Amino acid sequence: MSRLVVVSNRVAAPNPGKAAANGGGLAVAMQEALSTTGGLWFGWSGHASDSPQSEPHIAEHAGVTYAQLDLSATDYDEYYNGYANSTLWPLFHYRLDLAAFRQRTYAGYHRVNALFAHKLAQLLRPDDVIWVHDYHLIPIAEELRQMGYTNRIGFFLHTPFPVPEVLGALPNLKLLMRSFCAYDLIGFQTESDNAALRRYLTDWAGGHVLEDGRIEAFGRTVETQVFPISIDVAGMSTLAAQIAKTPTLRRFVRSLNERQLVLGVDRLDYSKGMPQRFEAFGKLLENYPDMNNRVTMMQIAPPSRENVPEYQAIRAELEQIAGHINGQHAEFDWQPLRYINKGYGRRTLAGFYRIARIGLVTPLRDGMNLVAKEFVAAQDPEDPGVLVLSQFAGAASELGGGALLVNPYDIEDSAENLRRGLSMPLDERKERWQTMWAVLEANTIEHWRKAYLKALHATAG
């Protein structure tokens, strides 16, 4: 059986000196896949310095090899903070106004991808199947092909993929798209993302669709499919039921003082639509005075990419809006909006999901958004909450039949749907939840992993 090699920007390597953490669904899925056949997980160590170690740190655990490479401070600035997160991330999230196009960071991105490919090549076997993850590492396959590697290589994009009219703003675009075509299989979250790449390759790059559905472009042939990522559905459901009975959660429930909870959980990022979300909650209190002192919103937003100016700006904006809402509506015994700039473990979040009446998931653009799925999985089937979900989240393509879909830019409509969710009868809440639960049961993180790897093994290679 072929060995699986996973390549990602960060590696979820276990730390034998510490108790096991509550790993995310993707980390768990990758580790399960690797342990099944024996495998290698390769990526950045998370360390950057002026004198990085030149060879990967190698560790073995439970039949899996973890290889982590350090970066120089310059490589980190140009590859990670620069091109990956200041060019590709805003571009792929339709934020051309925030995208920085600099030749220096473009060169750094390709330099680091070439470095990763060459260090990975030293560890590869002839029959390895390679699975590369996300926008940080698009050129990896082409680098390996240029070194003569003919292994099956697949790629999965966790972010959205923009339409050609937006993508076309990227300098050196053809070189990046040529890199895409070095893969045997490209996986996307949604059909619209898949269609965007296929339209670029056929309408803008002169490619054509073959009889078997693959696309020939840039002298190469690539297959594209949709694989919506998911979560450990049963695990989250069980965990939420257990944690809801703990002293920590009982303490939190007491702090609400019988008020309904509107919950948002997001990494601090401008793509998540949090300013608009705060404004919608403020509009709810303004338009419906009877909601005052009867509902509390809690937004959990741990910081990320704190060295990037745009992230500093979004944090300042959120603090200002939260202060305004609380200043306008708070009572001596009630703070309408709890804005928390730190993260919580999976166990605690499961409890928060369980007791929330509204899961407010309103990104301006998102590849999938697993918080939406976690919220649904964590609900009490006998008294479920309501998911208010952005139409621009990838999850809307799966959960739209049960969620209340909103346009996050439409503040009034979002406020109306908050009101609708808070006053929704139990029968309707249960019916909507059951619709979404059926979708989750049919597509767990395990189903996603198996479907992708089956398709990759079936490619021509």
What best-fitting shape do the alpha-carbon axes yield? globular
Number of distinct beta strands: 16
Helicity level? 40-55%
- Rg result: 23 Å
Q: What's the CATH class of the largest domain, please?
A: Alpha Beta
Q: Give the terminus-to-terminus CA distance.
A: 15 Å
SS element count, helices: 17
Overall mean confidence score, pLDDT: 93
Corresponding CATH architecture of the largest domain: 3-Layer(aba) Sandwich
- Whole-number tally of structural domains: 2
Which band does the percent of strand residues land in? 15-25%
CATH topology group of the largest domain = Rossmann fold
Strand order of the largest sheet: 3-4-2-1-5-6-7-10-9-8
- Which ranges are low-confidence, i.e. pLDDT below 50, for 5 or more consecutive residues? 17-23
Structural class: alpha/beta
Task: Report the major sheet.
Answer: 10 strands, mixed
Annotated CATH homologous superfamily of the largest domain = Glycogen Phosphorylase B
What topology does this entry show?
Layout: E1 4-10, H1 25-37, E2 39-49, E3 57-61, E4 64-72, H2 73-92, H3 103-121, E5 129-133, H4 140-146, E6 153-156, H5 164-167, H6 173-180, E7 185-188, H7 191-204, E8 208-209, E9 215-217, E10 220-226, H8 233-243, H9 247-256, E11 260-265, H10 274-287, E12 295-300, H11 309-329, E13 337-340, H12 346-355, E14 358-361, H13 370-378, E15 386-390, H14 396-399, E16 404-406, H15 411-422, H16 426-442, H17 445-458
Parallel strand pairs: 1-2, 1-5, 2-4, 5-6, 6-7, 7-10, 11-12, 11-14, 12-13, 14-15, 15-16
Antiparallel strand pairs: 3-4, 8-9, 9-10
Helix pairs in contact: 1-17, 2-3, 3-4, 8-12, 8-13, 10-11, 10-15, 12-13
